Amino acid sequence: MASIGHVAVGMALGRFEAGSASWKRRVALMGFLSLLALLPDADVVAFALRIPYAAPWGHRGASHSFVFAGAVALAVAALARWKGESATRWGLLTFLAVGSHGILDTLTDGGLGAALYWPFSDARIFAPVRPLPVAPIGAGMLTARGLYVSLVELLVFLPAWAYALWPVRRTRTP
To answer: Is the pLDDT of residue 5 over 80?
Structure first.
């Protein structure tokens, strides 16, 4: 999957959390949650380290699991508590952002699937329905296939983009 859908999920979660906060706060929250939604794909360094794609720490492996999402959520919750924010709320938002990544990757029509249940199972999972075309990795995104994947994702995630970017209605105070 190209990053368009993952970013859209993070931005929608950020908009939800920000509510009618200032523009600066909304942008910061949308950016932070988008980075969290993209975090599992940091596993592409496995290619440079010659870790096989199908290995537990290969692409779409352990970093795409619910356990990984939970570990990141716990770390962000601890940081939120330290900063005086709601640990529960930030833990849940983080789990949704990071955990959504593996689920969305199961909706693609290629690759090996996502190791959602790692470390309990190394099985790579696909959803029963796979409407999203798999994205080429690296420079392949600059090809006609990459453009096609990007356009499909943009259309599929258009509601999330619209929600995230729709202007906030300010209520007038008397």
So the answer is: yes
